[in-house]
Amino acid sequence: MTSTQSPLADIGTVRFPNGQPLTVRVANAVRDLRRTFPFEGYLDHTTLGCASIAAAVARRLPAGSSILDFGCGPCDKTATLALLGYRCSAIDDLNDTWHLEPRNRERIADFAAAMGIDFRLSAGQPVPWPAETFDLVMLTDVIEHLRESPRHLANILLRVLKRNGLLLITVPNAVNIRKRISVARGRTNYPPFESFFWSDVWRGHVREYTKADLEALAEGLGLAIDALHACDHMLYKVPRLLRPAWRLITRLFPGWKDSWMLIARKPENWTPMRAKT
C-alpha cells in the first residue's frame, strides 16, 4: 500500500449522514492539500478526517465564514477548509514529540502562512481572540487527551464563538468494532502499554468517548445538537482487503465505526456552565 494510493482511493467512500457522497469541491480541496502539505506520509492517516470534516462544514457554512481550529497540529484540516474559502485561524502548543523535531514547528508555521491561516503558537493563554469572533470552533481529536473535564476548555472556546455559532468535535469511538474485537481476544483497547510506559509526559488518550458521552457533553454545555454521527476516519488501521467488509458491517451498525463527530449550536442566551453543587 503506497501513501499516494490509499487515502485518495478511500475519499470516494466518505458519505454524508444522508448517504450523499462528497462534493467534487471538497474532494478537490483534499487533493490540493496533498500537493502542498509539507510532511510526507502524514496525510495517509488524516485524509479521510480532512474530507469528512470539510464536508460537514461546507454543508453548514458559506465560504468566507470564520473558523478556529483549536489543537490544530500541522494544520491539515485547517488548510482543507482554507482551500474551500473559509477564513481560518488555528492554535496549538506543538509539544508532541514529532513537533519538537528540528524545524518541524517552523515548517508548520510556514505552511499555515502559505495557506492564509492565522496560526498562533499557544503560550499559556488558550485563545487570544476577542469574544464572539468565530462562526465555528472545532476540536478534532483533542478532548480525548484532556486530563480534566472538557467542560473547562469548552467554556473558554465557546466564549469566542458567535451566538448561534457551531462547535465541531471529533473523537475516537471508545467502543468501535476493532476495540470490541481486541477486548474479546483478551487484548487492550487502550494505546500500546509500551508507549505509555516509556513516556516522560503522557500526551496520549486519557478518556475516549461514546455517542451517549457526547450527548451528555452537549447537554452539559447548554448546546443544541445539530448533528451527531459516526465516521470512518481511521480506515488506514484496517487491512485493505478487509475494508469492504468493515464498511458493510459499520453501515449496518454505525456505532461500531472508528470515530464520532458532534456538531452543536451555541444558543443566543448561552452562559458558561458551572460545576454542579
Provide the CATH architecture: 3-Layer(aba) Sandwich
**Estimated structural class:** alpha/beta
Provide the CATH top-level class: Alpha Beta
The total domain count is 1
What do we call the CATH topology?
Answer: Rossmann fold
User: Numbering strands along the chain, what is their spatial order in the largest sheet?
Assistant: 3-2-1-4-5-7-6
Short descriptors:
277 residues, alpha/beta, Rossmann fold, seven-stranded mixed sheet, 10 helices, 35% helix, 18% strand
Topology (SSEs and partners):
Blueprint (H helix, E strand, L loop, with lengths): L5 H6 L12 H13 L6 H16 L7 E5 L5 H8 L3 E6 L11 H11 L3 E4 L12 E7 L9 H10 L1 E12 L4 H8 L8 H5 L13 H11 L2 E8 L11 H10 L6 E7 L12
Helix pairs in contact: 2-3, 2-4, 3-4
Protein described:
The chain has 277 residues and is an alpha/beta fold. The chain has one domain (6-265): 3-Layer(aba) Sandwich (Rossmann fold). The protein has ten helices and seven strands. It has helices at residues 6-11, 24-36, 43-58, 76-83, 104-114, 150-159, 177-184, 193-197, 211-221, 243-252, and strands spanning 66-70, 87-92, 118-121, 134-140, 161-172, 224-231, 259-265. Strands 3-2-1-4-5-7-6 form a seven-stranded mixed beta sheet, with helices on both faces. Strand 2, helix 5 and strand 3 (118-121) form a beta-alpha-beta unit. Helix 2 (24-36) runs antiparallel to helix 3 (43-58), helix 2 crosses helix 4 (76-83) and helix 3 (43-58) crosses helix 4 (76-83). The termini are far apart. The relative contact order is 0.13. The model is unreliable at 1-5 (pLDDT under 50).
